[in-house]
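INFO batch 0412 | record 1 of 1 | parsing
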Amino acid sequence: MTPRIILFSTAVLLAGVPSPMVAAQLASPVAASASPPASRGDDPAQRGAAEQIAVPAIDVPAVAPVELEGASPPRRGVPKPPGGQDRPDAMHPVPPSEFETYVSTLAGKPLRRFGAELLLPGARDFTAPTTTAVPPDYRINPGDEILLGITGSVQAAGLRLVVDGEGRIFVPRVGAIVVGGARYGDLHAIVERQVARQYRGFNLEVAIGRLHGITVHVTGFAARPGSYTTGSLSTLVNAVLAAGGPARGGSFRSLQLRRVGKLVSDFDLYDLLLKGDARGDVLLQNGDIIYIAPAGEEVAVVGSVNREAIFELAPGETLTDAIIHAGGVNTVADNSRLMVLNGLGSGEPGWREVDAAQAAKRAARRGDVIRVLSHVGIARPLHQQPVLVTISGEIARPGRYYVDAGTKMADVLEKAGGLTSDAFPYASVITRESVKNQQRLSYDRAIDDVELLLATQPITSANRAQLVQPGNLALIENIVGQLRKREPDGRLVFNLPVDAASLPGDLILENNDVIHVPARPVTIGVFGAVPSPASFSYRDGATVRDFIESAGGVQKIGDKSAIFVVRANGTVLSDGRRTLRAPALPGDLIYVPVDASRGEFWARLRDITGSLFGGLVGAASIRSIFK
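INFO prediction complete | emitting tokens
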């Protein structure tokens, strides 16, 4: 009868771990007459002398660990406080410091210390996941579980060996092997060397099945200093963040790891956050002590940078270094200079301008507020602006043209092939953004004046009781409201002769100028207090009176003394009754107002609408108000 041998992992029994007892199966993989495979380093002459041990497989019942009803495993790395409740500080963010409050008030927006976003309450678990690959430099610790498999002349499948308190594992029929403190990359060679003392012709597989937690101590200016049990693959940063990170007065730039009294690493967390450099973030070992130093000098960087925040300075860092911490200047920044304010009394009072060369040399000081200025919203000189001109209408090659700053109208017309034979330069419309902005300001002020005039008339007039009637007041509000809806078009008005053959060639063009040259109009428009308002065919030599008579003459409610004409070039003709004798020009718009005994109001209305809206647009606006 073939002998049956049962081997148990004594390391498991010694460690007291409630895991299944392990049966080591050491048996020849082939019949006794077959030749076993060679082990590493064996020669063919030695293979015949290899020990042959035949051990049939046996079934060993598994012993399951006892689980208490309702129990749940604790989170790895961050122990829960008594009572199982979340920490109060995990529910509420850390209040801002005095400097954060001061800078936030100065900047007009909340500003926090850089890195504070990592410490948001309940953000995440910072411990290393259990599925992380074990790096070769990992040091074996007591409590780690080693997976061992041997094939070849001997077999040992599924051995789970726990490292005891003295750093040993016990391999059946091999003995104790000291692996504590060894590199994981060297573990295979250590175990193979010990097994080779007993056997030949085998293949060995070694891996780590489970890592035992380690205890580290976080001290200094930590949010929650104390002892922490964390995973064996946790690093310096994992432990610091598991302890809540640096406290309000703690440093992000000096995380000191000490091991057996020696400084192993002084890690700058900015290297990781700003550069992705984690070379100083070393793996922890059992008993390590982490000290978070007090925060260094702090400065604030605001304005046109990629990240506005409060930054901690390392010794010797300059203003330029502080801006680099802020991600550098953004696209619209003025990178030639910056402004510096030190409100703590350690420097010159008020904002001081510093150019780029000085910023690279000047050391940043505690409490500095550094502001990077922006180019947005600043009107640049004409010679620095790009010029895009749009030209349309009766042009040989209409389109958009990019030209140099300072280009004249004549040069753009030459590029566009000149005017066509049907062009009517007298009625050309040239609009400009800068003129439009100025017109908007002037127009708003003029409307305010009109509103004040109409609103005070009931007070200053003898018949004020009649003028303050609700209907009159509503009419005033309606007129002013409709006038406010009008938008100036930014038109430049030129006093060209009606038979002009070209545009003003000496005009310097600006960016976004729009030029439209219409065809020669063939009508005259007559509107207002006339029986038959319409557009009439232009007749050479006819006067304004002639066209008003073509529309049926002035009605009784019309005011002959207030008749005005809006010319096609945007000018307004308003000369009382003498306007009737003026020659009519192609494209004229003649308006006969209603006699409302408000001559001053109509004069203001003509000036405002005619000069700002010009041509058909202005007259049509007037017509729509009183239609």
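INFO post-check: The mean pLDDT is 77.
INFO record closed
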